[in-house]
Give the backbone structure.
Amino acid sequence: MPFPFRRHVFVCQNERAADDPRGCCNARWAGAVLEAFKVALKTRGLAGEIRAQKAGCLDACAMGAAVVVYPEGIWYGKVTPADVPEILEEHLVHGRPVERLVVGRTPPAS
């Protein structure tokens, strides 16, 4: 069976105590970022081929809101709802990561 989605967008929804020095993605607009992806994908008719969904802790608290796109393994940090249209158009549609937001890349499996 082929995979149903050509890309997966995971948006960290982790929540830590307010006094945690690392902070958390949930306090940095992660819920609004996820909703912006879902609305944008549906509006563009891409919800059947690209899935945006919540993730538990991605262990990138200092870079929240953290987003990772697979299968490329591109990690984005400090993403806001205002960044979603650019990520959608550039990366998800045209395959060009938005370098100003990239904080890491998952090494390919060997």
The chain has one domain: 7-105. Strands lie at 7-12, 50-55, 67-70, 74-76, 102-105. The first helix runs from residue 30 to 43. Helices lie at 30-43, 84-93.
